[in-house]
Amino acid sequence: MNQTHYPFWPKRLPKLLPVPHVPLHDLLETSARRYPERAAIIYYGAEITYREFWKQALQFAGALCDIGIHPGDRVALYLQNSPHFAVSFFGILRAGAVVVPLNPMLKGSEFTGLLRDSGARTVITTTDLYPVIAKELQNFDKNNVVVGAYHDYLPTQPALPVPVFMTQAAKSVENVTLWKDFLRNAPMPPDMTIQPDDICLLPYTAGSTGIPKGCMHTHQTIMANAIGSIFWAGASPATVNLAALPFFHVTGLIHSFLGTVAAGACFIILTRWDREAALQSIEKFGVTLWPNITTMLIDLLASPDIQQRNLTSLSFVGGGGAPLPPAIGEKLLNLTGLTFAEGYGLTETISQTHWNPPDRPKLGSIGVPVFGVDSRIVDISTLKEVPSGQTGEIISSAPQVFKGYWNKPQETAEAFLELDGRRYFRTGDIAYMDDEGYFFIVDRLKRMINAAGFKVWPSEVEAQLYRHPAVMEACVIGVSDMERVENVKAYIVLNPEFKGKTTAQEIINWAKEQMSAYKYPRIVEFTDALPKSGAGKILWRQLQEAEKNR
Length: 550
What we know:
Blueprint: H1 26-34, E1 39-43, E2 46-49, H2 50-66, E3 74-77, H3 83-94, E4 98-101, H4 108-118, E5 122-126, H5 130-133, E6 145-148, H6 164-168, E7 177-178, H7 179-183, E8 199-201, E9 217-218, H8 219-233, E10 240-243, H9 250-263, E11 266-269, H10 275-285, E12 289-293, H11 294-301, E13 316-320, H12 326-336, E14 341-346, E15 351-355, E16 368-369, E17 374-378, E18 392-397, H13 409-414, E19 416-419, E20 422-433, E21 439-444, E22 449-451, E23 454-456, H14 458-465, E24 471-481, E25 485-494, H15 504-514, E26 523-526, H16 540-549
Parallel strand pairs: 1-11, 3-4, 3-5, 5-6, 6-7, 10-11, 12-13, 13-14, 25-26
Antiparallel strand pairs: 1-2, 8-9, 14-15, 15-16, 17-18, 18-20, 19-20, 20-21, 22-23, 24-25
Helix pairs in contact: 1-2, 1-9, 2-3, 8-9
């Protein structure tokens, strides 16, 4: 195992972390027993205690068993962040079934394709989302379509700004089972034997390198990161977590949701990202922990009155999803005194395999391998390990690595390799490791731009562009060029105060001064917004495809 980073390991933490060998729903049951009156969830001001949380999860489990859901059956969650997601997630696990979290932005064939692939027998959604998939669910029995309403949990006088779509959403729809009716008079779920190594979660990859694939995770693979996240971030029962990351995505699932429950802490659920709601959450409820992704942090720091907002309760700000531009990290540090603790992981590793030590982070780095993770850098062509400082593909062997792709044995076999007698997962991410064992992402293996024979990694160019004061967001892609094979193009969202005052040529000229001749963007296009996934990641592939279609 690579131990280069051990001298810089957090002194308060062990190198290996024993993980409870129990089913995942034990996290909620234990916290409910320990902290029954503690507010587990705050939803726009409404509080749900751990006692009530576990009670509703048991009701949900009992109701699932009552409609014929058996251990191993798949249940799809087509939900935005809400108490419905939290309750049904643990209810499904207690029933011995498998959670299939689906991106609520999926539509039509995207939705039915994953529903069919997973074999889900029941779908949980809300009144605003149900019309989008109603046609696809017309062959489902009404007992197997459960539809909740935001009004089920919203307070009459919210303490935070509530998105308009939530207040205008219908309170009920026809020809389905309503959430409250599903829970009402539900029997207690029967006792059942659920093993830690049973499959319990089937999240789908984002499909950035092809068709989405279901990743088979067990109670144990998830437990490794749910418990690991608590200790790494210094969470405790007193922690207040701003849960703005989407729960259907593994980063939000672990760091906004499951890790918080494991600690017996409180999480403030935002159904949809809104920086004013986030800022008020921090100020009103004393948020201490805020896991996020780069786009959220950029948006929050761009608030016109950010200098006047009270962020003093924050003690840990970190996340991943995309490389953090150093300029953004510096702005956070100057404002709060906190260094952004960037991490790294994938759907296949149920979030983190790397994280920056909170007491010794490096801006621009994804950090070091966490508890029990052995990560190497191998040559893209030979798959032989390369020395520090040399670029290659990240491979990882770790307790949180998935068991394989659902019903895809060939893809599963191709995703792993043997090295020194151990099985390693091939991440497809290009990086290098410095002399202190910190890892630095260069880019996705398939995102490289071939500019006149030179390799250009878009994230590296984007990091430079973020240093320009006019740039709020940037996405770099390759566009075809007769002479250079590909040219570097940047899509840029300008900060409001620079709109109409900055030209594309000015950005190009500035970039030319900052980067190598082959690397700087020769084409800049301003746009009002960049396409993003439900998890907030910038969809570079969508821009790339649009360019090809031109």
